[in-house]
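Sequence in, structure out. Go.
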Amino acid sequence: MGGNTGFLIKASGLKVSLGGKQILDHVDLEVHPKEVVTIIGPNGAGKTTLLRIILGLLTQDSGEITQKPRMKIGYVPQKITVDPTLPLTVRRFLSLGGKLAEEQLAKVLTEVGIGRLLDNPIQTVSGGEMQRILLARALMRNPDLLVLDEPAQGVDVTGQAELYDLIANIRTERGCGVLLVSHDLHMVMSATDRVICLNGHVCCAGHPEAVSADPEYVALFGKKVAGTFAVYHHHHDHHHNAHGEVIDDCKGDHTHG
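Output:
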């Protein structure tokens, strides 16, 4: 992994084969600060493999990963299983990765909206609350890049919308980049700056509205449903062209919907 020219992480021409089967073929990806990038694709598309490469858990056969020097990554897994007989509070769970200052703990828990759960048994929290706990744990690293694998898994529709709003707010307030995997573009439309549709290779990429109308996306997921997209205003110190590339440092006010 080498130097950097403004992006947090960049994947170029990634190719991976596992068990004699090609999983990724010439995949490119780039995430900038203050940007939410969503990877979508059907089961078996290579989404998890791509995340594992970005997290340094798997090495590609060819291609290159370049990242910002000393970049910190916060990772939110799809789910985590806790032994129901283990006496573990939310506070104790969050401290497993290392001792935390009480002030830091309180600040992050307030940020994700679960301060009241601190002394509850971890086994008693709901699916949505658990995702916020995992998000809090990732944020305690003060990450430059936040990586989330299906963060809304096991969360009801209302909770999903709230969770994606929270992720968008974290990006805005902290200025970090966000890379997330989702199976539902319509649900993440309002929180996403750029979408990469993956099916072993990059089928299409760009702003959510453009991707949802792309013939390759439609072939994989069906036609978009009019009126399902939320309106979302986000403010950056840059804006993007039609492909989602950063093109200057002006203030942008974009409406997604």
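Check: Residues 1-72+145-156+175-231 form a domain with the Rossmann fold fold (CATH 3.40.50.300). The two ends are 37 Å apart (CA to CA).
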